[in-house]
Amino acid sequence: MEEDEIIKLAKAKDEKAFEQLVNQYKPIVEKFAFQFGMEPEIIPDIVQETFIKIYRKIHQYHRGKFSTWIYQITLNVTRDYYRKRKREFNLIDKAKKTQIMEIQGGYYFEKEEHLFLHECIQKLDPKYKTPIILYYFHDKTYEEIAMILKIKLSSVKTRIHRGKMKLKEIYEQAEGKEVYMNG
């Protein structure tokens, strides 16, 4: 069955169709939430909240790529979580969490450098971190990123460029050596 048909059925509250959408997009939501800096133990909550919102608002989806719409919702859920967490935790608790995290729940890195890069990306301002994650780890085009973030195409290009420069600075400071940029 085509995705458009599945979406149409899901809009009609067909539970099997919605379950198909969940099965198809759950790994994408998990990966995006993790790369956005969510702790592995929080990711199931983010996924659940994302799909609850999708279920409640699927009737509002009308055009464009369905995956782009899901990225928008996932991004909003993660931002809401960060706002909530920011209110709940004080600086001391945050300092305790900056220790090297143990990767669990199926999220792992093939090499230690990958974990180090992930930690450097987490230090970026979200306005730079989000486009970099979408472009390099989710293979989204500049146009798709502009739609997901609801910003101009030129802003996407600028944020990715500046984000790479800032990431390079963070990486060099942590490593104590200069990095050659390619891509």
UniProtKB/TrEMBL annotation:
Ranges for domain RNA polymerase sigma factor 70 region 4 type: 117-167
CDD domains: Sigma70_r4 (cd06171)
Spans through the membrane: none
Residue stretches making up the RNA polymerase sigma-70 region domain: 21-87
Pfam families: Sigma70_r2, Sigma70_r4_2
Keyword annotations of the record: DNA-binding, Sigma factor, Transcription, Transcription regulation
GO molecular function, one term: sigma factor activity
Domain of life the protein comes from: Bacteria
Single biological process term from Gene Ontology: response to stress
Similarity section: Belongs to the sigma-70 factor family. ECF subfamily.
Protein name: RNA polymerase sigma factor
